[in-house]
Write a structure and sequence with these properties.
Pnp Oxidase, Chain A, nine-stranded antiparallel beta sheet, globular
Length: 161
């Protein structure tokens, strides 16, 4: 696979997976959560989060978060080779009314009317998660670091140190 094919595989995984596992903090303050999302690696992943969520503080203060996207296990031929994409992201709270509305609109396009309900709840805030690095696993011996502008610098990872 060339770099273009590898990047396209990452984009395909982002398009296919409806939710991500989000991690913030470390040690005793580590928190994990789940967020449905819409978007792309280039434009950012759009999410909404309740102020009650453990990861909200990291999102709201712009602390980097880690997002894990996993291939549906039911479609995976070998669970140890499950396709996955780990992204380190910089969150941006979307306070502008138009940007907030646009986030809810793309979530509604992907997930339906539940986004209308969430938009009306005052504790749900809109964020864009902009990836700045990541790791993509496409199978055994197919692990890649994604770095640089637009995550287009790709390095094949090996177990050789």
């Amino acid at each position: 696979m060339n770099d273009h094919d590898i990047y396209r595989a990452a984009e395909k995984l982002v398009a296919a997976v409806p939710g991500l596992v989000i991690g913030s903090g470390e040690g005793e303050s580590l928190s994990l959560g789940h967020l449905p999302f819409a978007g792309t690696m280039d434009e950012g992943l759009h999410v909404v989060s309740s102020r009650l969520a453990a990861h909200f503080h990291a999102l709201d203060t712009g602390e980097p978060v880690i997002c894990l996207l996993l291939e549906d296990a039911s479609g995976c031929r070998q669970i140890y080779a499950r396709k996955r994409l780990l992204l380190r992201c910089k969150p941006e709270r979307l306070t502008d009314a138009d940007a907030r509305a646009a986030t809810f609109a793309i979530l509604k396009a992907r997930f339906g009317g539940i986004a209308d309900l969430l938009e009306g709840l005052p504790d749900f805030q809109a964020f864009r998660l902009q990836p700045f690095s990541g790791e993509l696993v496409l199978g055994f011996g197919k692990a890649y670091a994604l770095r640089g502008r637009g995550l287009r610098t790709i390095e094949h990872l090996t177990g050789n140190g």
